[in-house]
Amino acid sequence: MDRGISDRNILEKFCEDFCRIAEKHCKYIIVSGFVAIASGRTRATEDIDMIIERLPREKFIVMHNDLENNGFECLQSTNPEEIYSYLINENSIRYTLKENKLFPPEMEVKFVKDALDEWQLKERQKISFIGLDVWFSSINFNIAFKEEWLGTDKDCEDANHLREIYKGDISNDEIEKIKKMIIHLRKKE
After folding, report:
1. DSSP state string for 75-144
2. Could you give the 3-state DSSP secondary structure of residue 43?
């Protein structure tokens, strides 16, 4: 079925549109698989992972309403109080476009969880190679998380892709430092 535009372009437009709204309300980063995909890796995904700073309830509700007014809807609930309770209890929420549920890209949103996520937000960057006007966690963070925390075949392939594409820009020392922090903060759970 030819939809006239590639799945990658659909994801990119969805990501930029969502991030443009989120940026008015909070500090955020895009993490995980979409970083590799936006960097040229060919693989399927229907979701984009976003970490946002912890927001007070009122500020989150304003952001949620702005997203709704711009064509996005939360899959968990229409009640912003209930949606906020998911986030505050360290669960993710998912937004999609109201108009297109057959091939829905989804934005999976989570609040910052710990010092590691805080560090990622502090070190966020716009990656010129990708050409999207959105904030990403650093390539070093993405590689470390994929290799040390996630570790699936798909994640290791993503990490290898990022290592190859950004070989002149990554820091193995920084990646190892992040991996140690992952072990300290996440693997003890």
Report:
1. SS-S-HHHHHHHHHTT--EEEEESS--SS--EEEEEE--SHHHHHHHHT-B--TTTT-SS-B--HHHHHH
2. coil
Enclosing H/E stretch for 47: strand 47-52
pLDDT beyond 60 at 4: no
Q: First and final CA of the chain: distance in angstroms?
A: 45
CA distance 90 to 67: 21
Task: Evaluate if residue 6 carries a pLDDT over 60.
Answer: no
Taking the domains of the chain in order of start, what are their residue ranges?
Answer: 7-138
At position 111, the amino acid (one-letter code) is F
Instruction: Examine the pLDDT at 7 and tell me if it is beyond 60.
Output: no
CATH classification code of 7-138: 3.10.450
Q: How do residues 121-134 score in pLDDT, each as one tens digit?
A: 999 999 988 899 99
Encoding tokens for residue 51?
A: 């970490």
Q: What is the DSSP letter of 70?
A: T
Q: What's the pTM value of the predicted model, to 2 decimals?
A: 0.90
Q: What angle do CA 37, 39, 40 make, to 5 degrees?
A: 70
Calpha distance 144→75 (Å, rounded): 30
pLDDT per position as a tens digit, 76-105: 999 999 999 999 999 999 999 998 766 678
* Cβ-based neighbours of 60, under 8 Å, separated by 6 or more: 25, 80, 83, 84, 87
